[in-house]
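Technical annex B. To support the medicinal chemistry partners, we prepared a structural model of the target in complex with ribulose-5-phosphate, based solely on the information shown next.
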Amino acid sequence: MANEGGKRRAARAAMRYVEPGMIVGVGTGSTVAYFIDALAERRGDIEAAVSSSEQSTRLLKARGIDVIDLNASGELALYVDGADECDPQRCLIKGGGAALTREKIIAAASRQFVCIIDPSKRVDVLGKFPLPVEVIPMARSHVARQLVLLGGQPVWRDGVTTDNGNWILDVHNLRITDPVTLESAINQIVGVVTVGLFAARRADVVLTGEEP
Ligand code: 5RP
């Protein structure tokens, strides 16, 4: 079960990686909301943030933190984001908040990816949390059929449109023992924008916010 204390502690611990003058890449979700609160306490110390979602952009701006475009920032030194599951090799399932595509772009453009989770997100094998896949709307059924061939049971996240105007399929019943290969296979399906497996570019550091 998710625990708020663990999320808050992990978010606070990530502040150790924030250095003066940095442009910080910021993920999305309830754990990241705690990180944004902590970042706001040092807003005079950082240059700006690059945001992975409209939701995080609103939170950052409401707390007085400048948000700039990734095209203007160049490569980032630091990206901080949550996850839905994390395996012992620091591979992740992300996208519970439907922000996976922008999250993956910022992770790819960052030298260090610090993942903040509460201890309940740690798993031995990824896949209990349904794997989100962002798809171009007209390709939804085609992609779903291909995902069935890969052994999954895709369910359309009905009513959800991503910040990029796309849809999400949540793939159930996967036991992901080779995340790098599955990430690549799903990325090859025509109509897939992004799969929420972060394995080729996984977290560099995972902070779990255990009780002291
Ligand atoms: C959003 C994400 C989030 O990082 C993930 O869903 C975890 O969220 P939370 O911190 O609320 O548990 O990938 O797309």
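Notes passed to the chemistry partners:
The first strand starts at residue 23 and ends at 26.
Residues 27-31, 81-84, 94-100, 103 surround ribulose-5-phosphate (CB under 6 Å).
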